[in-house]
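Run: sequence + PRP -> complex structure.
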Amino acid sequence: MSVDLRDLLRARFAWTDPGGHTGYVVSNRSGWWRDPLILSGLGEALGDLFKEATPTVVVSPEVTGFLVGPLVARAIGAGFVEAYRAGARRPIAEPMTWAEVPSDHRGDQQHLGVREGLVGPEDRVLVVDDWVATGAQAAALRSLFPDAYVGTAVIVSECSPAVSISLDIRGLLTGQDLM
Ligand SMILES: O=P(O)(O)OC[C@H]1O[C@H](OP(=O)(O)OP(=O)(O)O)[C@H](O)[C@@H]1O
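>> structure
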């Protein structure tokens, strides 16, 4: 992973004040996808975080994970499996396996599901996402593949050290890097 990519990620990121005296700012990550250098380097950089684990499949939660996950899968020669959020769309026709997501950074209860039969006993699953806050999505996905899970690779990891260690979450940037 080059220092340049980290610098670019920092440069293309912004915090937005949504207005209305909400008292908080929201992350604007669109600058990442708009930058061709970030888009071309991101998959390899995230894949390198777990090179020694030789993952065979990347699993990512919708919706931003559907953008980042395939970049990593392509870079490391793995396949990709979508993890859908319950209630976000029309019901999926195929049989699904669902995991309860512990209360996430918004305090919402969610369920993440994958189509049955896409991950086998020989697979090594790398979870990929853009951001980890509480680790709730990562924990839910690990619970779906307790034996195959090798860890979670993200662009920004701002969860506690204890959660990072327990779920083996590795990031390119910390929350502090974006302050
Ligand atoms: O560590 P956690 O507390 O589970 O939070 C991390 C999740 O938060 C963001 O998703 P968001 O809900 O903002 O949806 P998005 O995919 O539309 O960005 C991010 O993409 C992760 O999926």
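>> summary
The CA atoms of residues 85 and 112 lie 5 Å apart. The two ends are 21 Å apart (CA to CA).
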